[in-house]
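ok posting inputs for the zinc ion job
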Amino acid sequence: MSRPSRWRGRAGAVVVALGVGGCSGGAGTGPIDLRGVRFVDLTHPFTPETLYWPTSPSGFRLEQLAFGPTPGGWFYSSYAFSAPEHGGTHLDAPIHFFEGGLTTDRIPLEQLIVPAVVIDITAESAIDRDARLTPEQVARHEADHGRIPAGAMVLLKTGWDARWGRRLEYFGDSVPGDASNLHFPGFGEDAARILVEERDVAGLGIDSPSIDHGPSKDFAVHRVLAARNGVALENLRGLDQVPAVGATVLALPMKIANGSGGPVRVVALVR
Ligand SMILES: [Zn+2]
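and the output
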């Protein structure tokens, strides 16, 4: 079911989430007041060592086109980059796993600048590297922090970003071209259905390689999410600096026309 209009009218909630107030002159008289807001970068840098899925045909490439003095006497530098859509800190557009889903360029901004909810399964992931978020853990989170609001981005903190850059530790396997023996934590299908179908979240994010855990062969969480035009954020970092509730997340991908995803800069605004 395609519901491209589901996010209409949510911009007001974002303004509230940013803590905007004190506009004594009324709307439109000045910039949004971000004093006292802390910006947390949830993005890994893109380098030639950036980790991509084992079956990815290539990684991130940066080719130097110019670097140094010009005949005119000034300095000039320029590069060309190339990369598959799905690697490093990136966004999955709904069409990645749903033929009728939105492409990267058509995801409404109102879906990408939303309240953040962080669920912590670091302890479970440290014991079981194939751990999956369960409905019981969602219920426990809501008992502690309140019901997850519609339109929120649910970010799953597993602690996996500490392993970033070391393929064997991060993916659980380092055999080139082989994605059949991966081990890392993710969302469980039942928990994803609650979040996507009952809570109507904007998307799911995680600090591991995929919202489906490593052993998944059917990518059930991706499909549940995409069918409702939800977005995924993968290979995040720094979720330990974001509170369980109360932050706002901005996840703005490169605007690739007809894309199935793309590199994304993800930032949390924390008061
Ligand atoms: Zn992806």
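notes: The pocket of zinc ion is lined by residues 86, 90, 92, 234, 261 (CB under 6 Å). Residues 31-57+84-270 form a domain with the Glucose Oxidase; domain 1 fold (CATH 3.50.30.50).
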